[in-house]
Amino acid sequence: MALSVAGKYAINTGGGSGINLAFAKKLLSRGCSVLVGDISLRPEAQELLKQYPHDPSTPPSANRPAALFKKTDVTSWPQLSALTRAAETAFPQIDIVVPGAGIFEPRWSSFWNPPKSPINTNSPSRDDADGDPGHYAVLDVNLTSHSGLVTYRR
Question: What are the residue ranges spanned by the domains of the chain?
């Protein structure tokens, strides 16, 4: 059985570029309105907003889905709350949440280059081996983002 997203409403973090931009395009092409939360939009994402304009006086529908943008840093709870409020204002409900934002980390602070240690002396990382939690922002955001889904539980 195929699931339809026509007439549904989605929040898509990270939809300003990359994989989640492709996901936003697919949702819109299938009749789902999308609010993109990202730090910025690549030119192709800006074109998507023009292709699926949002008219606040007419609610989006399956026949006329809309794409909206709200500048959002997903590492900031206040900005995530603002994204939620923007979705609640623009849409009658939230049906789909796509927590897919990537976090830029300098090459010296990443999962693939763990901190220097006695057994990892050649690492380009500048992080302390016993550093405070939070050095691996990508893991933090993608693992904790699921807690935000509780907001949309019916």
Answer: 1-102, 103-154
Rounded Cα–Cα distance for residues 91 and 45 (Å): 20
Superfamily in which the 1-102 domain is placed by CATH: NAD(P)-binding Rossmann-like Domain (3.40.50.720)
Task: Evaluate whether 25 touches 47 at the Cβ level (below 8 Å).
Answer: no
Tokens 């990537």: give the residue: 102
Adjacent-strand bridge partners of 96: 10
Contact 40, 73 (CB under 8 A): no
Quote helix, strand, coil % in the chain, to nearest 5: 35, 15, 50
Q: How far apart (Å, rounded) are the C-alpha atoms in residues 47 and 7? A: 21
By C-alpha distance, which of 73, 65, 69 is closest to 95?
65
pLDDT in tens, the chain (154 residues): 578 999 999 999 999 998 999 999 999 999 999 999 999 999 999 999 999 999 888 888 878 999 999 999 888 889 999 999 999 999 999 999 998 887 655 554 555 556 666 776 776 666 666 655 444 555 555 555 555 555 555 5
